[in-house]
């Protein structure tokens, strides 16, 4: 009889440690954190402000560097990549949605969505079709040529979601994506994000304070004093 197959994790964090100086003393924001996240999972990261949620997401995307331990995404050890390879890896594999949208004000909505493709020298015509398709999905095709400052917060976040997905990443990271939106707008943006990620079989890791979002997760991780405790919602 063969043993049941365990799926291999998409993300594997082992012994992950990140320290910052606080009042001249080192503080372990993340202290020896181990975590596996599986393909297709919706994983929610909780913890009070300053507990290290953003730090953890930034280590998974390689925006930040660990002081110890390892971050693996798929078969790649991010901690072993130099800056250039890390940037390429992130561009090709990871979509990121931030709390404050981070759209580029001098680019139109469509140009913002196409940024990850333009950076990669991908096929611009095909990229444009994908970008317009995503703008349709988020209900903003008619705003393709508008500039971000003409859009509401919820609309800007929908553009940021389209941008995060334009290269069809296997992993999407969202750092308090509804944290800067009113409740109703936040709920609609969340629904859209889940439709385009989790319902499409993509892996989604989200930091949030919102208990309503937490209840929708497959698993929840709580950060406190540098340690991560994982449970079911
Ligand atoms: N660049 C930095 N320099 C010094 N301390 C930092 C830096 N970034 C984050 N921190 C500290 O690390 C801790 C965790 O921050 P963060 O990950 O942003 O928490 P959260 O996202 O849960 O609010 C905080 O105490 C913060 O002050
Ligand atoms: Mg944060």
What does this structure look like?
With 233 residues, the chain is α/β, with parallel strands linked by helices. It has a domain of 158 residues: Rossmann fold (3-Layer(aba) Sandwich). A hairpin with a 2-residue loop joins strand 1 and strand 2. Helix 3 packs across helix 4, helix 3 runs parallel beside helix 5 and helix 4 crosses helix 5. The two termini are 34 Å apart. The structure holds adenosine-5'-diphosphate and magnesium ion (MG). The site of magnesium ion (MG) has 4 residues, from helix 1.
Largest sheet: 6 strands, mixed
CATH class of the domain at 9-102 and 168-231: Alpha Beta
| Fraction of residues in H or I helices | 25-40%
Count of helix runs: 7
| Coarse shape | globular
- Measured on Cα atoms, how large is the radius of gyration? 18 Å
| H and E order | EEEHEEHEHHHEHEHEE
Percentage of β-strand residues: 25-35%
The CATH topology of the domain at 9-102 and 168-231 corresponds to: Rossmann fold
Could you name the ranges where pLDDT drops below 50 across 5 or more consecutive residues? none
Name the strands of the widest sheet in spatial order. Answer: 6-7-8-3-9-10
The CATH superfamily title of the domain at 9-102 and 168-231: P-loop containing nucleotide triphosphate hydrolases
Overall pLDDT confidence: 93
Distance between the termini: 34 Å
> Which structural category fits the helices and strands?
alpha/beta
How many β-strand runs?
10
Which ligands, by name, code or SMILES, are bound?
adenosine-5'-diphosphate, magnesium ion
CATH architecture of the domain at 9-102 and 168-231: 3-Layer(aba) Sandwich
């Amino acid at each position: 009889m063969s043993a049941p197959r365990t799926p291999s994790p998409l993300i594997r964090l082992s012994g992950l440690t990140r320290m910052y100086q606080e009042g001249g003393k080192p503080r372990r924001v993340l202290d020896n954190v181990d975590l596996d996240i599986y393909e297709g999972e919706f994983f929610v990261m909780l913890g009070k402000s300053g507990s290290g949620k953003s730090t953890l997401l930034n280590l998974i995307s390689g925006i930040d560097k660990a002081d110890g331990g390892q971050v693996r995404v798929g078969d790649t050890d991010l901690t072993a990549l130099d800056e250039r390879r890390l940037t390429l890896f992130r561009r090709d594999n990871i979509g990121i949605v931030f709390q404050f949208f981070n759209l580029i004000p001098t680019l139109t909505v469509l140009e913002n969505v196409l940024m990850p493709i333009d950076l990669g020298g991908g096929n611009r015509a095909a990229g444009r079709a994908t970008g317009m398709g995503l703008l349709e999905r988020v209900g903003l095709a008619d705003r393709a040529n508008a500039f971000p400052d003409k859009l509401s917060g919820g609309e800007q976040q929908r553009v940021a979601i389209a941008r995060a997905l334009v290269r069809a990443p296997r992993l999407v990271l969202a750092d308090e994506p509804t944290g800067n939106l009113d409740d109703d707008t936040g709920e609609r943006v969340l629904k859209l994000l889940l439709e385009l990620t989790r319902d499409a079989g993509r892996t989604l890791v989200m930091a949030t304070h919102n208990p309503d979002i937490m209840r929708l997760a497959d698993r929840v991780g709580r950060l406190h004093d540098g340690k991560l405790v994982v449970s079911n919602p």
